[in-house]
Write a sequence for this structure.
């Protein structure tokens, strides 16, 4: 299972032509192509708590339905969280598998970015990336303006982890997707034999999660369960 930076593998003109053929379902993806091209690569603290208008410290979360713990995300708290994460990264065996620096940035910053994305406590910051991109989100560059520097750090981190190491899972995984509020997914749910034939290639247009437990992936009362192997 791997993740590719938005637009990194696409030709802008070709992507536009394909989207025109596919119709309105995919038009919301277009503004996200090449979204990270001009984003500077920096440290974890700069990306998360930098306060330069493009970090989590500047996110407007008032209109997003998030846990109360997000209300405490001031710059000081975010800096402290990053410092704790970087201490955890210092003890990670992954450090030894990476070059000492990548584009002038120490490898510990990339390991820290990966650790931070997987954390549920104290508040699960990954939701600030996934919410603008899910079916109910705005899906625009503007909605992700404050998250771009961290997203750049995270995607580069995913690119530099050696593909033959233990940190890449190669077994069977499951992904459950709710069809609620999405006409396109509802149609695919009702016509799954045609829409999802075995061997179909899928592209998730947002950071997505998966599980090794099929019962967890199947918790939606009406949804699609994907099996990747």
């Amino acid at each position: 299972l791997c993740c590719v930076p938005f637009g990194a593998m696409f030709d802008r003109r070709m992507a536009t032509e394909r989207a025109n053929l596919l119709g309105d379902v995919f038009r919301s993806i277009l503004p996200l192509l090449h979204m990270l091209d001009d984003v500077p690569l920096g440290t974890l603290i700069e990306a998360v708590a930098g306060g330069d208008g493009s970090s989590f410290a500047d996110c407007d979360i008032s209109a997003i339905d998030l846990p109360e713990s997000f209300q405490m995300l001031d710059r000081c708290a975010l800096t402290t969280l990053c410092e704790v994460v970087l201490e955890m990264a210092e003890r990670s065996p992954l450090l030894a598998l990476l070059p000492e620096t990548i584009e002038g940035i120490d490898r510990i910053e990339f390991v820290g970015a990966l650790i931070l994305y997987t954390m549920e406590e104290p508040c699960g910051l990954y939701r600030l990336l996934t919410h603008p991109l899910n079916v109910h989100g705005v899906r625009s560059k503007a909605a992700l303006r404050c998250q771009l520097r961290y997203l750049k750090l995270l995607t580069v981190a995913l690119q530099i982890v050696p593909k033959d190491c233990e940190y890449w899972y190669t077994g069977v995984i499951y992904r459950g997707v709710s069809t609620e509020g999405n006409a396109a997914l509802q149609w695919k749910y009702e016509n799954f034999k045609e829409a999802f034939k075995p061997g179909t290639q899928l592209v998730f247009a947002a950071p997505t999660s998966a599980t090794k437990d099929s019962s967890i992936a199947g918790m939606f009362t009406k949804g699609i369960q994907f099996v990747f192997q």
